[in-house]
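If you are new to this repository, start here. Below is one unmodified record pulled from the training split, so you can see the exact layout before writing a loader.
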Amino acid sequence: MIASRRLAIVVGALTFALVAAMAASACDAIERLDSRANETAAIERAASAFVVQAGTVGPASTDRYATALLPFATGPLRDALQATVTDSRAGTLERRATVRVERTALTALSRGTGVVTVVAVQSRQWSDARAGIQHDAVRLWLACRLEAVDGRWLVTELRVLAEEPVDPATAGSAFVD
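And here is the target side for that same chain:
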């Protein structure tokens, strides 16, 4: 009888310890998921900001192009931007662009690097001597590789995966009345 009680107490204590360990593990898992969600949002925001900046301030903006993108870039991309030389005649082109990010998706994350797919619409306007003011818009699928540097996510690589024309009137273009 006494042995049965001792066994019941031991089993009860072990069960309690197991339940407590499971609860602690669940809380830890929730914290990790919450942390991962915050990190995902930060990476996606950084990729979006770079895409908007790169698509809005184009190479025709002379020295502003590299200057505007440097705070968002690191590694080989930053090196390439610092080496950018813009033809001074590009500034005489009457070109404007706006970018609207439609969606982002973190597709890879590992040890301080991540890859984000960005889908954005770029609306462009330019002046042609014969045809006057022209508009077009494209939907871009982009892959941004990012690295964590001093607590910030910076773009190290930008690749255009696909591009398709869209009607400027339905693309939310700021240039079409």
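Two things worth knowing about this chain: The chain has a mean pLDDT of 81. The chain has one domain: 2-166.
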